[in-house]
Amino acid sequence: MCTRILLVASVMFLLAASLTGTAPARSVTPDVRLLTTYEPLMQFDPLEQFLPTRVESFITDADLEQLTAGGTWTVAEPNAAPGDLPGPGSGIWRLNEDACTPAAPLGGLACYTAAWEEGSGGPVVYGRVAREDDRIVLQYWYFYYDDVYSYAYPPSDFIWQAHEGDWESVSVVLSGDEQPLYVGYSQHCLGQRRAWADTTRFGETHPIVHVAVGSHANYFSAGTHPINVACIPAPAVAILRALGLPLPVDYAFAGPIAGPPDSGGSVMPIEQVGDGGPTWVQFPGVWGELQYFHAPAPIGTVPFGTSPVGPAFHPEWTNPLATLATWPAG
User: Fold this and answer.
1) What are the two backbone dihedrals, phi and then psi, of residue 174, each rounded to the nearest 5 degrees?
2) Backbone CA torsion sign across 148, 153, 157, 161
3) pLDDT at 99 over 70
4) Which helix H or strand E contains 292, and what residues bound it?
5) Is 74 exposed, middle or buried (0-12, 13-18, 19+ CB in 10 A)?
6) Which of 26, 101, 149, 150 has the fewest Cβ atoms within 10 angstroms?
7) C-alpha to C-alpha distances, 108 to 34, 48, 154, 204, nearest whole angstrom
């Protein structure tokens, strides 16, 4: 009698589910396990000075500044606290690393290296899971103390571009039933995407990312890579042509590795982030002072933009699938 009652109840449940357009819930892998399963293996150029680091050390090394009347940046809080950063709609802000400046020779690379070594708190990757249009987007965000791109290799003070606070990302897109479909690697103002089946991996599930020295652009293979001309400022293109020089390339030769615990390199633990926190995710300002470009005289070192905004204000975060669709196939 009891068995019959259970059987009838099960049939009624399935019938109700079919009539309402819903189905019994299926098991779903926890977000943290998905992020761990597909964590990228990062391979850095031998001349790279930085590993991705925790933001807290950079924030506490920086002054929180607000743009006030007359276009003046005024210090609101020296050596800012990560939990006290202002949120959206509170004004125009920036974090200014108070010991270094990207206007120094070779973008202040030596100074930022020393600051990173003193207070980085160890390497880390910030992981986020976004669900959109029956797709699961695993995002891996990497923060570097600065970006110093050198036209020459090894880096020199000949021609360079530099800014504080560098954010880069790698995305792994899964189907609704958690099958990997493709990946997207950030590169300067755009990125590249590639089918999962064509992506080189460590083990079965960890895409291998080759990180360009200085710029931290992410590539599918080691070596030199042309920079998408859409991401090169027109004045820089004009200067190179006037000097009779080719357009710049990224250098991403095979060097140290970091990523999953079993990769044999530096371990980068995953810290989950999302719209709900940590609080620094919603900081609306830029992560550094002005951006600078340097070329031989008579140009010298000139400002030509700002440092980047944080992850939550990147198109990869706000509209991941549509953004990845605009990136050329690599």
Assistant:
1) -110, 155
2) negative
3) yes
4) strand 290-295
5) exposed
6) 26
7) 38, 14, 16, 40
